[in-house]
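QA checklist item 7 of 12: single-chain prediction sanity check.
[x] sequence parsed
[x] length recorded as 115
[x] structure emitted
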Amino acid sequence: MKIEELNEQEKYAIACFEKVLQNRHINSHFFSFGVYADQKICLEKNSEGIYVTYLADDGVHRCEEYFLTIDAVLKDFIGKCAETVTETEEMFQEYQNYYKMNANIEEEQSQRFSR
């Protein structure tokens, strides 16, 4: 899966995740979306639509984990960045708020065009 192969919803979810990291002054260079990158936590989507994350280490996938939704992946990623469970929950709530803002804007725009 290359970032170009993600659907718009997945791309926006990742952008919201990166915004949370940016707000918290956490460098997102620890993550790679869609491509193998050595010494990073990578996200790929397999042919069955399952999200697979792993630590890339000298050509080897270590610590593979599987997720059904992009939200579950990103909450796991947030947990890897946060120092406490409370901080994980706060950061995930911030992510959800960014994501909902986009959904509300799109809904308002579609209602304007349907009138």
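[x] summary fact logged: The two ends are 38 Å apart (CA to CA).
[ ] second reviewer sign-off
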